[in-house]
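INFO  loader      accepted 1 record
INFO  loader      residues=168
INFO  predictor   begin
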Amino acid sequence: MKTIAAVLLLSCYALGQNKTAVTAAEAACGPHDVNFEVKADASQHPTPTPENGTALVYVVQEDGITGRLGVDGKWVGANRGRTYFFVPIDPGEHHLCATARGIGPALRYPRVALRQLRAEAGMTYYLVPQVVGELVYAIDAKFDLIQVDPDQGKALVARAKFSTCHPK
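INFO  predictor   done
INFO  writer      dumping tokens
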């Protein structure tokens, strides 16, 4: 009887997932089959400011996660370990997607974090993809794309190496 109840419960969970809704929610991501070769470049440490009416987004990775960032359905860069990269974006509403894969059970499977960003010309934004919560190494750990204060963002960039990446 317990086995039948467990099967029914798991079946309801599987049926409750709406693949169309998941696909729509992840529209900010790029194609699933795109991966990057990522290297930390200690020979340079660029920290530009926004120019020509654009905004600038820095993505700073603080831990051993390998991740990438998508903006409005296109992958724009990737990090691995304590690295950062930046990307200029036009002013307006943007939909961001961070994916991560790392070591340990928490990131054995790719994780996705989504965030909306209303960018203003001349502004700089600092984003940190990270596993959050008390159970960082648990299978059900949460992954988020956190926007940090500009002072904190500058400090994180100063401690990180510049990330160079190219699609594989």
